Fold this protein.
Amino acid sequence: MSTILTGDRPTGPLHLGHYIGSLKKRVKLQQKHQQFVMVADLQALTDNVGNSQKINDNIIEVALDYLSVGIDPKQSTIFLQSLVPELTELTFHYLNLVTLARLERNPTVKSEIQSRNFQRNTPVGFYCYPISQAADITAFKADVVPVGADQKPMIEQTNEIVKTFNRLYKTDVLVTAECLFGECPRLSGIHGKQKMSKSLNNAIFLKDSPELIQKKVKQMYTDPNHLHISDPGKTDGNVVFEYLDIFDENTAELDELKKHYQKGGLGDSKLKQRLSSILIEHLEPIQKIRRELEKDKASLMDSLIASSEKARETAANTLAQVREVMGLRML
Ligand code: TRP
């Protein structure tokens, strides 16, 4: 049995990229493993310092998404990062184990800094979020972390911290982890090229209404050279086909459509209609559960607080071990 930890920043509701990249996997994993799922509000604050209201409002949105896709609070411990202060202390100890040069090399942070145009004004907390993520993972002694492809550098950095700590303090209290990718570790946003991301305004959210899904699919990037229906079209790099490959279960028909499109004579709008209906149908049962749960957000918040208390016990155990090997006075 593995121990799994994963989480999401509550900067908005979750989208199809989360679903395909990691949420579906978590629903499966919880049946056989011990799984912790974290709403990473502190990490979200690292680049939203003037926006704490937005982060606080979205905690419940993310929790609603978790439950509606089938993460079961009886099988998984869903918790709120800021209710486990042990994570913050662990982060503080780990900060000394990482050099500035090493932080600078993290490709995910690098590209995030670029896309946010921070330059020299990057908040230090943001710069160091891979270290806080190492605390999240190691506090639960997780050995498996189901995430999207962009999170791989975080796990590599976590494992370096684990090895450095264990070597310096001649111990084995911290354990290394491996990433586990979903069926599609990277889903393109509706405009193509970049990955689906709330901040890039290219996401289809799990809670989007059928009308909104239709509208977004209509805007999807296809083949810019496919101007007339009769033109031959490219299926590679065509976002509609990327999504159909994932969500269309009728693979025989899909193969036919691909051939037809490549030959010419098949219009984008027909394909987009097909994709819209498939997505709407796929999300309908998820949205039905969400509508039920939304009626009682207060009790959902209460359960999140209660399960955070449970998560805290595990993190406190690890922190006690860490303090002990470091020779710190025990609390
Ligand atoms: N970085 C993740 C995201 O961008 C959220 C996260 C925080 C996380 N701590 C984690 C993911 C630990 C996996 C493990 O959504």
Residues 22 and 182 are 5 Å apart (CA to CA). The pocket of tryptophan is lined by residues 5-9, 40, 43, 133, 136-137, 145, 147, 151 (CB under 6 Å). Strands lie at 3-8, 34-39, 76-80, 144-146, 178-180. The domain at 3-188+297-326 is CATH 3.40.50.620 (Rossmann fold).
